Amino acid sequence: MEGGMSSLETAMKASSSVASGTARNADPDQQTVRSNSVEQFYFPRPGQSLPGIPPFFGPPSSSLYLANDNEAKVGNQFEPNPSQSTDWDPQAIVSNLTFLEQKIKQVKDVVQSISSRENQVAGGSCELAAKQQLITADLTSIIIQLITTAGSLLPSMKNPLSSNPAVRQLSNTLGSPMGFGMNANQRPSVDSKTDIPDIGKASGYEELINSLNTTQDERDDLIKCPNPCGGEGSEPTPMEDHDVKESDDGDHEGENLPPGSYVVLQLEKEEILAPHTHFCLICGKGFKRDANLRMHMRGHGDEYKTAAALAKPTKDSGSDHAPVTRYSCPFVGCKRNKEHKKFQPLKTILCVKNHYKRSHCDKSYTCSRCNTKKFSVIADLKTHEKHCGRDKWLCSCGTTFSRKDKLFGHVALFQGHTPALPMDDVKVSEASEQQQDSEPMNEISRSMGCFPCSSSDGISNLDMKMADDARGYYSPLSFDPCFGALDDFTRPGFDISEDPFSFLPSGCSYVQQNGDN
Amino acid sequence: MSREGQKLDSAAGAGGVGIGVLSLDLLGQVLDRLREPRDRKACRLVSRAFERAEAAHRRALRVLRREPLPRLLRSFPALERLDLSACASLDDGSLAAAVAGAGGGLAGLRRVCLARASGVGWRGLEALVAACPRLEAVDLSHCVGAGDREAAAVAAAAGLRELRLDKCLAVTDMGLAKVAVGCPRLEKLSVKWCREISDIGIDLLAKKCPELRSLNISYLKVGNESLRSISTLEKLEELAMVGCSCIDDEGLELLSKGSDSLQSVDVSRCDHVTYQGLASLIDGRKFLQKLHAADCLHEIGQRFLSKLATLKETLTVLKLDGLGVSDSLLQAIGEGCNHLVEIGLSKCSGVTDEGISSLVARCSDLRTINLTCCNFITNNALHSIADNCKMLECLRLESCSLINDKGIKQIATCCPNLKEIDLTDCGVNDAALEYLAKCSELRILKLGLCSSISDKGIAFISSNCGKLVELDLYRCNSITDDGLAALANGCKKIKLLNLCYCNKITDSGLGHLGSLEELTNLELRCLVRITCIGISSIAIGCKSLIELDLKRCYSVDDAGLGALARNAFNLRQLTISYCQVTGLGLCHLLSSLRCLQDIKMVHLSWVSIEGFEMALRAACGRLKKLKILTGLKTVLSPELLQMLQACGCRIRWVNKPLVYKDC
């Protein structure tokens, strides 16, 4: 992390002058390079150093503008201009490379040891699996380490997004008299624009031109008074709002820090997505918390056991006036990206992580209860699972609402929609159950010697199977038979209960009708 | 049945032959003109032609037992109104089967009353609604178990105009929303006591049912937001919100901004409503006719009075029960509201003779005056009422102990239309009754706690008040059997009779009562002298008896209950606490009375546990209410209790010691 941060800062310092050195690359061969690099990103191979990988890759939905930007970046990386990087230190690079070499050797050794053991031992499959896991973890951490190191190797690459505006500016301002100093290999603006329609639609092309024309003046102004933060070329560039729902990234909409009053940091995608942020420099094991790393370090020797080594590093060690730090999302076009017209910075690293996962990553966690809701942040899934299945307010159209008033608002708005009662689906299954179960139930009650009071109607079996009460199972005794004997009084001549005829057919027909449903 | 049939046969014998030649239409017309159900029954029983005409023409039907329901629905295809509220042990299965059996016979049914039919659930309702495409009114009130599913089943009747869901305790916003969406033409809705309904539900109702004319949201936990929604109802005429403690003046002000259709508002027992809110309501609703503000106001300010005066032409009913009033206030009301027809001042402190006379001086249209517990008024107030309110029909004077026969004389002389008078605890004597006997229109007479009334007074009443329907003689303990003889002779129409604690009455008195065929409710509490003989004569004679109270009639035993069991088929409500009943008598009673739904049997110390168990098992499907000693809770079998509850029976446990006399 430490290395990453420092490289970020260097990148910011360097990037102010990046613009002049970058070129617009639209060559076909460059495009292939880009696709390769993306592939590598998705499937990183252990031990492979990836210095030229652009930390940005757009999701499939990203527009062709972004694709172009991406190309530009790639081009940028392949034509580093040494004169720009003032902090470029060959010594440091050498030491870093050595470190990488060592790391790769470590991994190689471990893998070799596994393969040799595989040949020897047949029965230790369990152990082997454990080993493999261990190695995979090691490899992951090494890869990440490699990437970070690679980032520090190429400080001007470190923050390619900072160079993006410059690239865009180049392409945008080609037609204007006030161009930046262009490289000789830069193509005329016409060229760069002509390959856009090849990919996209003509309308997109027109849109682009329009946006270029309209935003020209604005940008000129901005360039005259550049953003003071870090001196980087992070002028808010006019861009379309490509994405993305403004989700609650635990941020501070109301904070409204004036631009420039804070330092903007932009972490790379890999850093954001890394499961661990603190790595042991000796064994490479990763940790989520610095404190855990310090505890771990104790195992590497007595020098790490001192109170000073175990103490929490104080914040004010570096600078007297710790600048207010805010974070930018590496996704170009996102409102949280510092190039966005209405850039809203993220407050903490945690915000960055959650924002990036929520907005720009696949939602890989599916709720096991409803099997519909998906989340990219596991905490969101857990929060959802707490409420999933409960308080579901359902409309007859199938829409569900978390709150009753929302459902009622919906019902009020749409003609014919009505709230659905939670048991609506139960009803059908119950009805079909009824006929099957009613007969045995009746028999049971008969064999027990007590007749359901309504069995004389021939319809008791309908309520035998009441869903939730005991009505069907406890049948009231009919006292008429047993009282005939006990009774000293004569029975009333007019017996009201005697009407056996009318019920049976009606009862039967009801059952049938029920069955038809 | 056969006895009655013979009697009627002989009465109608002469015309019996010729009736057959008349067409069914004509006979139907004849039947339509018979007002009394008994008369129609007589015609039906003596002539097949009338029976056929009745079958073809009958519009309304009230069914008392479950068993004949399918047959009845089949035989009356022209039914429009069906009352199943008293139908014993009606449940889903029987209702659905009956409806299915009737086939298309229910196509014309418009109104169904299922009040207190707690055994009916959504299955039965669904079947009913599906079979009755023209259903307009459904009454589900007091089906305490009914919830959203039942409401949803009713909501399938798209043409519904009236719906009562009072005390359907499980109905929530969801059920109300179902109704609101399903029945857009709803005009009358009562959701009184549906405590789960909230502002959200009322809001949706107001949006979906623009035709609502009458709405009752009493005792709901809704707030001012509901009134905001309700104020958007353009056609609302009547709004009752009794006991809505979350509603205050702000809500009434919101309500006042609606259309001018509102005519009647009831804010009784709304604790947070003051005269200020009512004033702003009146300000907005210029055409208010009825204002019920009982038990919610503590004072009345000048603003309210001045607004009230703007309703001069329209206001007819004003209820201010429980308010502290003054003479000047009553005077202001009298001057402001000349067209008052009804005023309620019960339990108002500060009501004096002067106040009443200044009130009635301008309000000559008054027909109903409620002065219950206004203990300061004297004969003078009655004089001024009698002088000004010639149209008086109802006068309630309970606990006005300063009045006497002179005041009553004035009322009886000047108000010939008097139909109801409440003199409970007024200490009136026989002389007052002599004057009251002039009011031949009298329907309801309450004389409770007037212990100086004797047989003589009853004889006066019986001589002229043949239309009397309700008579309350609670603790008039000077009355003897002779008084009852006179009563049974003169007042044949009596339906409700209270003779509690008139302990001089014996079996022979009850023998006279046996001739009151229309008697439905009879309270005989603590008549220690009556035995099975008296009970038998009542059971045999009073065929319509629905409710009987025999609490503390210590001499009534198994034989008395046996008489009830054999004869009182319509008995629905019975109290036999403290009677000398054994288990056998109880079992016989409960297994025989097919309509019995409510029985109070506390302190039956001669009944064994087995007796209770057997008796309750016998009545299980029918009982809706049961009052019984707590001691039995543990000794009765849990299956029985579970079964009772499953059948919709509510048990009230009385926490008193369990005593046995014959163990």
Automatic annotation (TrEMBL), chain A:
Gene3D superfamilies: Classic Zinc Finger. It is found in: Nucleus. Residues 1-46, 226-256 are annotated as: Disordered. Its main location: nucleus. Pfam families: zf-C2H2_STOP2_3rd, zf-C2H2_STOP2_C. Residues 7-39 have a biased composition (Polar residues). Keywords: Metal-binding, Nucleus, Repeat, Transcription, Transcription regulation, Zinc, Zinc-finger. The keyword Metal-binding applies. The keyword Manganese does not apply. InterPro entries: STOP1/2 (IPR044300), zf-C2H2_STOP1/2_C (IPR058196), Znf-C2H2_STOP1/2_3rd (IPR059161), Znf_C2H2_sf (IPR036236), Znf_C2H2_type (IPR013087). Residues 278-305 form the C2H2-type domain. GO terms for molecular function: zinc ion binding. GO terms for biological process: response to acidic pH; response to aluminum ion. PANTHER family: PROTEIN SENSITIVE TO PROTON RHIZOTOXICITY 1. This is C2H2-type domain-containing protein.
Automatic annotation (TrEMBL), chain B:
Residues 360-589 form the F-box/LRR-repeat protein 15-like leucin rich repeat domain. It comes from the Eukaryota. One of its GO terms (biological process) is SCF-dependent proteasomal ubiquitin-dependent protein catabolic process. It holds the Pfam family DUF7885. GO terms for cellular component: SCF ubiquitin ligase complex. This is F-box/LRR-repeat protein 15-like leucin rich repeat domain-containing protein. The lineage of its organism: Eukaryota, Viridiplantae, Streptophyta, Embryophyta, Tracheophyta.
